[in-house]
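step=predict obj=3-hydroxybutyryl-CoA dehydrogenase n=296
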Amino acid sequence: MKNIAVIGAGTMGNGIAHVFAQNNYKVNLIDIAQASLDKGLATITKNLDRMVAKEKISEADKNNTLANITLHTVLADGVNGVDLVVEAATENVDLKLKIFKDLDAICDAKTILATNTSSISITQIAAVTNRPEQVIGMHFMNPVPIMKLVEIIRGYNTSNEVTATIMELSTKLGKTPTEVNDYPGFVANRILMPMINEAIETLYNGVAGVEEIDTVMKLGMAHPMGPLQLADFIGLDVCLSILNVMYDGFKNPKYAPCPLLVNMVMAKKLGIKSGEGFYDYSESRKAEKVASQFAK
């Protein structure tokens, strides 16, 4: 297995492409928009430059990694002849079902189809294909080049052979694969998202402010990042989508999204990606921080 296709050049997609390419796999990075591909490749280059500066890799390693990546805007061209497709498109069930139905029709019979979904049923995705035994979840963590965990999610029909292949492949990437079963949210988000949602409820109910809530969890629970800051980092729209998947899947009110989260998403306050969420990431705010540092 040496030829990989990654669908989606966003945060997760370009990170997955980076990791495969750095480990000397040939990667076709696919997105419908050339601008997204250019931005994704620029992100990969920037991250590689940072690694060179820290002497974690050489300039030759960086150049080799970039040479392993080819950009495509046409799905059929990008998945032609590959051994594995990793879908990392937007966390939208209808979009993912369409992508996998298309992949099943155009990919080689031997090609394994994986999804980076963080919550959507692998069994449901596999059901739109004629190869459900070859469909599996590969849930990478963000930022992909740094985080070691990959949740490997077996659908109801995923074969033992495919599971073993993907577990071994993840290990070759320097990751720690952990096999879990196919239930809404899997393990990572089934535990993480209710915590984030409860932090938002705590803010919504006026128990404490944003920084106070995050400080308690960082200093009191040894979390590297507070839950509200983490929600901004993930994207509030993504958090809402995952909670809705779990709420629909389990029909349990404990997964119901906090009204504050719903309102913030409707208001396009999505976190880092929009420049504002629970924290302000705008350029004016950055300038204020720099000015205050010089004032000190």
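step=describe
Strands lie at 3-7, 26-30, 69-72, 84-87, 112-115, 135-140, 149-154, 176-181.
step=end
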